[in-house]
Amino acid sequence: MGETDHPGRTGKAVIDWLNARGPAWKNTVQIIAIDPAACYRTAIRQALPHAVIVVDHFHLIALANKAVTAVRQRVTRQQRGRAPDPEWANRRRLLRARENLTEQAFTRMWNALIDHEPTGQILTAWIAKEEPRSLFACARQRAPRAVISHRQTPPTAQPAGGGQYFKTR
Fold first, then answer.
1. What average pLDDT does this structure show over 51-66?
2. CA-based Rg of the chain, rounded to a whole angstrom?
C-alpha cells in the first residue's frame, strides 16, 4: 500500500483502501510492513486481524537515529552546540550508517566518544542503532538462518569504561 494509493493518513482511509480490495485479497495478506503511525496499526488490526504487523526498515532506522540524537542531547545538555565539544562535532557522523563512514571518520568519532563521554551512553546508543542495520543487511544478503539468529542476540559489550580504541592505518 503506497502513500499515493490512498487518500490520507487516517485510520478510515486505510480501512477503506483495504476493504476496497475485497475479502479474498485481504485473506491472502499474512504480513504487512507499515510506518509506525498509530492510525495505521489500529486500522490494520481492525481490517486484517490475522496479519502480522511489522515496521518497515526505513522507519525503524529513522526512529533509531532519533533515539541517538535524544541521548546525545540529554548527555551533552550543558555544552550542546559548541564546536569544540566532540559529541557536537560528531553529531552528523552519529547518524550515518557505519558502512558510509570512512575508516578515518569512524575512528575519529569512536575515539572522541571514548575519550570525552565517560558514561558511554552515546556510543552505546550508536551501537544499538547499528545493530538492526546489520541484521537487515544479513537478511538482504540472504544469510543462513544461523547467521541471522546470531545477529539477533543483543550486543553484550558495553563501551563505557573499558572501551576499545581504534587506530587508523
1. 90
2. 20
